[in-house]
Design brief:
alpha/beta, 2 domains, globular
Length: 384
């Protein structure tokens, strides 16, 4: 029976300590949550600014639902592109300093659509080896030649670019790497793009809302504004809601409208979400204290976890990975925290390379200094 083969593969995963499972969240997203009937202090959400349960966003969502209903009913290119979508696209483009923006239902769909629409057979994609899975899938589906460079290794990338002749060239990279928390050297990447006449697609899923003035993202963090940059960010992390967008020159977004299959053949997201996201942009602009508090928590955490047998990887973003090593040890450490009412996920291969299993600690502006101290105390206890 084919099911026997499937069960064998599942049993193998379990034996390797790689079995995944879902847990049921029974409360709104936040730093204090209820999961499977138990209360936890959570360090595993991407809600970096604490906006997922913000009253202004909830109110805007309610008003949007009253005005537009609960479903878009069609794709953007049929009859699903509402006034709320249009207003949000204009606001997002202005927020990140790009001429135009195009909404997608998820970041995964945005990356699939953008890469597939911009390059194909005869072209070349250059990709950081630690890029997100959506970028990896996108480059394979594009049917372009793929060349992967060592993580943030600009000399290796330069060599690959020198060896490539003909066709369009597209460099793709995470801005903030989701499992390591470090930042891509965007100025150096852009310089190579200029030298070799390439595009640069930046996935700022974990930088948008957190980095740069008013949370305008990684491009603002580095003061980069050149037209050859194609910018993607998600709206379900720091922005607190759902969705994603690609911001670029008009010729790029129009190319996506005509050719990005994950845009053309997908029902538009509910317009009410766009109404909530407009409120989210206002909060991000107005409440700089959230980013300031987040930076203080990062400093506190890194100081509080010194002296442990496991080391924090270098990161000044809300993603603070604690490198453990083996899959089993990471799971045991995560479960030890869970028993203490603290939820920090164990991240294992294939999400990260073999031998680098870790706890992925995610900080939020909604955390308090006492919350961070409680986590540090729990880890020091477990280290004994």
């Amino acid at each position: 029976m084919p099911f026997t083969v499937l069960q064998h593969k599942l049993d193998e995963r379990a034996a390797q300590g790689l079995q995944r499972r879902r847990r049921v969240l029974e409360s709104p997203q936040g730093v204090h949550i209820t999961v499977d009937g138990k209360d936890y202090l959570s360090f595993c959400s991407n809600d970096y600014l604490g906006l997922a349960n913000h009253p202004r966003l909830i109110e805007a969502l309610q008003h949007g639902a009253q005005q537009y209903g609960v479903g878009a009913g069609a794709s953007h290119l049929v009859s699903g592109h509402s006034g709320a979508h249009h207003e949000l696209e204009q606001a997002l483009a202005a927020f990140v300093g790009k001429p135009h923006a195009l909404l997608f239902s998820t970041g995964y769909l945005a990356n699939l659509g953008a890469v597939q629409a911009l390059v194909g057979r005869g072209d070349t994609v250059f990709a950081d080896k630690l890029n997100h899975a959506s970028l990896n899938d996108a480059m394979l589906l594009s049917r372009a030649t793929v060349k992967r460079y060592r993580h943030n290794d600009m000399a290796h990338l330069a060599q690959l670019l020198e060896e490539t002749h003909g066709g369009r060239k597209l460099i793709i990279t995470d801005a903030v790497f989701s499992m390591d928390g470090d930042i891509a050297p965007l100025p150096e990447l852009l310089a190579l793009c200029e030298q070799h006449d390439a595009w640069l697609l930046v996935d700022d899923a974990h930088g948008f809302g957190v980095l740069g003035k008013e949370g305008r993202g990684s491009l603002a963090h580095f003061s980069l504004e050149l037209p050859r940059i194609i910018y993607m960010a998600t709206l379900g992390k720091a922005a607190g809601v759902s969705g994603a967008f690609v911001a670029a020159e008009k010729v790029v977004t129009e190319t996506l409208v005509q050719n990005a299959r994950s845009y053309i053949y997908t029902t538009a997201s509910p317009p009410a979400l766009a109404s909530s996201l407009l409120a989210s942009l206002e909060v991000m602009r107005e409440e700089e204290w959230r980013r300031e508090h987040l930076r203080k928590l990062i400093v506190q955490l890194r100081a509080g976890l010194s002296g442990l047998p496991w080391s924090l990887m270098p990161s000044f973003t809300p993603i603070q990975p604690l490198l453990v090593g083996s899959n089993e040890d990471a799971v045991v450490l995560s479960e030890g925290l869970r028993v203490r009412g603290i939820w920090v996920p164990a991240i294992r291969p294939p999400t990260v390379p073999q031998g680098t299993a870790r706890l992925r600690i995610s900080l939020s502006a909604a955390h308090s200094a006492d919350d961070v101290s409680q986590l540090a105390e729990g880890l020091h206890e477990l280290a004994q």
